[in-house]
Amino acid sequence: MEFLPQPTAQDLMSAPVRSISPDSTLAEADLLLRRYGHSGLPVLDAAERLAGVIGRRDLEVGLRHGLAEARVKDYMATDLQTASPGTPLAELEAMLLRSSVGRLPILKAARLVGIVTRSDVLRGHARPQPAPDLPDLPPALADLLQQIAAEASARGWNLYLVGGAVRDLLLARAGRPLLLKDLDLVVDGCVADGCGAAGAAEHLGLEAAGVELARIVQRLHPTVQLQIHGRFQTAALSWRQDPEFGTLGIDLATARTEIYPYPAANPEVEASSIWRDLYRRDFTINALALRLTGKRTGQPELIDAFGGLSDLAAGQIRVLHANSFIEDPTRIYRAVRFAVRLDFELAPRTADYVRTAVNSGLYAQVQAEHAKVPALQTRLIQELRQSLEANYWQPVLQKLAALGALCCIHPELELTAETVAALRQAIRLQASTQQVVKRWLMMLEVLLISLRPEARVSVAEKFQLSAEVIQRLQTFEAKQAEILAALPTCERPSQTATLLRGYETATLILVAVGLPSSPIPQYLTDWSRVKAPLDGSDLKAMGYASGRQFRQILDELLAATLDGEISDRAAAERFVRQRYLL
Length: 582
Description:
It holds the Pfam family CBS. Belongs to the tRNA nucleotidyltransferase/poly(A) polymerase family. About 45% of the residues lie in helices and about 15% in strands. The chain has 4 domains: about 10-125, CBS-domain; about 130-310, Beta Polymerase, domain 2 (2-Layer Sandwich), CATH 3.30.460; about 410-490 and about 500-520, Methane Monooxygenase Hydroxylase, Chain G, domain 1 (Up-down Bundle); about 535-580, no CATH class. The chain is an alpha+beta fold.
């Protein structure tokens, strides 16, 4: 395979650059380093000139001696090596070997525009390469992506196709079917000017490159729907039954990095480079990117910094970093769903990380300490919904149970053979009833009724389920007792139907899945569908005057039909005339 020319500092550097002033305290520097996970920070004077670098090691020495209020300028390194954006990888590597700081400031016209670390240099050896032969995209979609890439290039930005679409394109080469209806595009808006310290505030703004590019696409395609999520620097473009694109969704985002203020929280988002953007992703197979702009060969360039191609070939799901499941337990559910859906396995170390996270007790701790824990509330229910709606729900739940990950729903939740049988029966009943009952929600309720009433209600509230669902879970035992006490008194189908008609379909399903035998399934699938051969219009045509008597006649007709006493229109008319005189 032909490789591209050696990358330069411009290709590898992290930007925008987070910096600190010489007069900041060591305590302030420590807070920044901990927040962003850096090992050092460049120090810029009032004129935005590079004055030095404060490293983690020197900082910790000062803090250990009780000098938290000392000034950064007294501890920073000033004998620095610097490079330019065009400095090649080999030279960067040599400079870092000679450096005691471990970070190379990248200067352009004396302005700090980026930082290259030893990790960046290692990443440089996994530089972009011509993508393998990929299946052809539909012409309309290919033209659309080319158009968006041209608009990005005109503004000096790089555009990348990332995540699941790249994964599925690569898997399609192995004969898997390809269906691209949801695409993720990432705009690296820092390449135009280096996104240095002086311009960082502009690039960290909410109206960032991805949002701006999405607005441009909307102007070019007026029928598209645009939704902007400024907090996350993303925009969603949606085509619905479009004559050219059919149903298509494109998420456009600015390349960004994420910081989790506490485990399972919503991340705080800041603009960054494509490399940092890929590092924040969940698994190596989803951290692949195709560069759609600035092609230096005849085909898109593939960025594979974390071994995603190898993991696709090996059929394994591998997480990017050890704390991934601590930061976002939703990734546990996503990892299992991908493994089942793609017929992959969790990499052994990734499975270990899952078990470490679920056994740590951290999820219970953060829920006790924080009123809002999105990754165990809104994001988890969205991920769980996808699994329950899929035809492979059973192996997903079984793998989650084997990993101990059902504790993310509730610590007492278990998956037994009886629960699986109940879920299967609930799916059959949900599919056969005429009433609108959401399958995933019905399945979730079946899972929850195995818990204590207060526990199931707590989970429902955590997941922000509707008041109707919460009420049903609260009153389940009482409704179940009512139904079970009344059913033996019903001798005919019409009596059973009259009884059960007073309860919600979802309640009846919950009661039915816990019984070895009952007439409830027959009611849901058969008796509830039965209609009398005559309706109000027919009674009027027979000469009966409308009024309260209509309801009584129709109820008796329905009961007689259910009990097999009448089966056709003629029999129904005789039934009515025998009982009700004109």
